[in-house]
C-alpha cells in the first residue's frame, strides 16, 4: 500500500513538473494578456451602470431605490451562477466555457443599450452576470494547465490585475463615451470590445486534455466541502472581497461626502488607489512565486503574502478611518488597497495549488461564490452604517475588522497547500 502511494506521489510530482513545459514564452504572454483583458473588459462593463445610475435618476426619473435594485441584480445573478459555473467549466473545459460565457455577457451588454425600461434592463443585467460566471473558473483552469506551480501566482496575479485596470479606466472611459455619444453607446462600446476578444482567444488558445495520470481520482467535487482548507479559503475570500468592494463601490462617495471633493476631482483621485493596486497585485504574485522557486514551501509563501497583505489593509484602513485631513486619509486608503492587492495572487492561487486538476474550476467557483457574497453585502452594509452615523468612520472600522478576519482564516483555517486534496481528508492540515 505504501509503495503504491509513493509511486502515485512520484508520478503526480513528475507530471506537475511537466505542466506547461511544452508552451513557449510568447504563447504564455499572449494567453496572460487575453486573460487580463477579459477581466478588464468585464469590470469596465460593470462600472457602466455606475455612470448610468445618475443619468437614469435625473433624465429618466428613476428612484434611487430602483437604481439600487438594478445594480444588485447583476451581483446576485453573478454570485449564484458561480455555483454551477465551476462544474460546467470542469466538464466542457475552458475552450468551450470561456467563449460561451463571454458571448453571453457581450450580447447581454449590447442589449442593455436598447432600453431604459426597468424590467428589460434587469433581465439583461442578470444575463451579464450569468455570462461572467464561467470567467474565473475558466481563467484559472487555463493557468493551471499552462504554467508550472512555481509561476502560477504571478500568472494569477496578472489575470486579476485586469479587474483593477478595468476599475481604473472604466469610469473615465464610460463617462467619455456618454459625453460624446450618449447612454446607449456606453453599453455598445463595452459589448463590441468583448466581441473583439472572442476571435483572438479562439485563435490563440491551444488547450489540451490533461494527462490521464492527473485525471485519476475517486474524489467528487462535493467532497471538497469536507476539507477545512476549502472552508478557510471560502471564508477568507468572503472577507477579502468584502474589503475589495467597499473600496470599489464607495471610494468616490467617500471622497465627495466625507472629504468634500467635486465629482470630477473624486473620479480622478479614485483612480490612484487602483492604479497602485495593479502594481501591488503583480508584485505580490511575483514575490510569492519567487519564494517558491527559492525553496520556500508553497504553504508558507502563499500564506505570508495573503495574511501580510490583509493585515496591512487592516492597519491602513484604520488609519484612514481616523484621519482628519484629506491627503493623509487618501494616502492611507491607497496603501490599504495596495495591501489587499498584494495578497490577491496568493489568495486566488491557493485553490489551484490544492485542487484535484479535474475540479480546479469547481473549487475556484466555490471559493468565489462565498467571496462574492461578501462583495454583494459590502456596499449595502457600508451604506446602512453611513446613513446611521453620517460618517465613513464606522464603515471603515468594520471593513478593517473584516480584513483581519480574512487574514485569520488564511492563517489558521486554511491548511497545507503543498499537496493536493484527496478522497481522504487529512486530519491535521493546519500547520504552516
The fraction of residues assigned to DSSP E strands is under 5%
User: Could you list the spans in which at least 5 consecutive residues all have pLDDT below 50?
Assistant: 1-17, 210-215, 426-432
Query: What is the CATH-assigned architecture of the largest domain?
Result: Up-down Bundle
**Biggest sheet, open or closed, and with what strands and sense?**
none
Order of helices and strands: HHHHHHHHHHHHHH
Average pLDDT value? 84
**Radius of gyration from CA coordinates:** 21 Å
Rough outline: globular
Query: Helical stretch count?
Result: 14
The CATH superfamily label of the largest domain reads MFS general substrate transporter like domains
- CATH class (first level) name of the largest domain: Mainly Alpha
- How far apart, in Å, are the first and last alpha carbons? 27 Å
What portion of residues is helical? over 70%
DSSP strand tally: 0
CATH topology of the largest domain, which one?
Growth Hormone, Chain: A
Number of self-contained structural domains = 2
SS class: mainly alpha
Could you describe the 3D structure shown?
The protein folds into 2 domains: 22-206, MFS general substrate transporter like domains (Growth Hormone, Chain: A, Up-down Bundle); 225-420, MFS general substrate transporter like domains (Growth Hormone, Chain: A, Up-down Bundle). Helix content is 81%, strand content 0%. It has 14 helices and no strands. Helix 2 packs antiparallel against helix 7 (183-204), helix 5 packs antiparallel against helix 6 (152-181) and helix 9 packs parallel to helix 13. Residues 1-17, 210-215 and 426-432 have low confidence and may be disordered.
Amino acid at each position: 500500500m505504501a509503495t503504491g502511494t509513493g509511486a502515485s506521489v512520484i508520478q503526480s510530482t513528475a507530471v506537475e513538473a511537466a505542466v506547461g513545459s511544452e508552451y513557449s514564452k510568447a504563447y504564455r504572454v499572449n494567453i496572460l494578456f487575453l486573460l487580463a483583458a477579459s477581466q478588464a473588459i468585464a469590470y469596465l462593463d460593470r462600472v457602466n451602470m455606475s455612470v448610468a445610475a445618475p443619468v437614469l435618476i435625473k433624465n429618466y426619473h428613476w428612484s434611487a431605490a430602483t437604481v439600487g435594485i438594478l445594480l444588485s441584480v447583476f451581483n446576485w445573478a453573478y454570485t449564484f451562477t458561480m455555483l454551477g459555473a465551476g462544474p460546467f467549466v470542469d466538464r466542457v473545459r475552458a475552450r468551450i466555457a470561456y467563449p460561451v460565457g463571454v458571448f453571453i455577457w457581450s450580447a447581454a451588454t449590447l442589449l442593455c443599450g436598447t432600453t431604459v425600461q426597468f424590467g428589460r434592463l434587469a433581465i439583461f443585467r442578470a444575463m451579464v452576470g450569468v455570462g461572467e460566471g464561467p470567467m474565473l473558473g475558466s481563467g484559472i483552469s487555463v493557468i493551471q494547465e499552462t504554467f508550472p506551480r512555481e509561476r502560477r501566482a504571478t500568472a494569477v496575479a496578472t489575470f486579476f490585475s485586469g479587474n483593477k485596470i478595468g476599475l481604473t479606466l472604466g469610469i473615465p472611459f464610460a463617462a467619455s463615451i456618454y459625453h460624446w455619444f450618449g447612454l446607449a453607446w456606453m453599453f455598445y462600446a463595452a459589448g463590441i470590445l468583448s466581441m473583439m476578444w472572442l476571435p483572438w482567444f479562439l485563435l490563440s488558445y491551444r488547450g489540451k486534455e490533461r494527462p490521464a495520470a492527473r485525471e485519476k481520482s475517486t474524489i467528487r467535487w462535493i467532497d471538497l466541502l469536507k476539507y477545512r482548507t476549502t472552508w478557510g479559503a471560502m471564508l477568507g475570500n468572503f472577507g477579502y472581497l468584502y474589503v475589495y468592494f467597499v473600496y470599489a463601490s464607495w471610494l468616490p462617495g467617500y471622497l465627495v461626502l466625507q472629504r468634500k471633493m467635486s465629482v470630477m476631482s473624486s473620479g480622478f483621485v479614485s483612480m490612484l488607489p487602483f492604479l497602485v493596486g495593479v502594481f501591488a497585485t503583480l508584485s505580490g504574485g511575483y514575490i510569492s512565486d519567487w519564494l517558491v522557486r527559492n525553496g520556500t514551501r508553497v504553504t508558507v509563501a502563499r500564506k505570508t503574502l495573503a495574511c501580510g497583505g490583509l493585515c496591512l489593509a487592516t492597519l491602513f484602513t484604520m488609519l484612514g478611518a481616523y484621519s482628519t485631513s484629506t491627503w493623509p486619509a487618501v494616502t492611507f486608503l491607497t496603501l490599504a488597497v495596495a495591501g489587499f492587492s498584494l495578497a490577491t495572487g496568493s489568495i486566488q492561487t491557493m485553490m489551484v495549488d490544492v485542487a484535484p486538476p479535474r475540479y480546479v474550476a469547481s473549487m475556484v467557483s466555490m471559493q468565489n461564490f462565498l467571496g462574492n457574497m461578501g462583495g454583494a453585502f459590502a456596499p449595502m452594509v457600508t451604506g446602512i452604517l453611513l446613513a446611521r452615523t453620517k460618517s465613513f468612520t464606522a464603515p471603515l472600522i468594520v471593513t478593517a475588522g473584516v480584513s483581519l478576519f480574512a487574514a485569520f482564516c488564511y492563517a489558521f483555517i486554511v491548511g497545507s497547500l503543498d499537496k493536493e486534496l484527496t478522497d481522504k481528508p487529512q486530519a491535521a492540515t493546519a500547520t504552516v
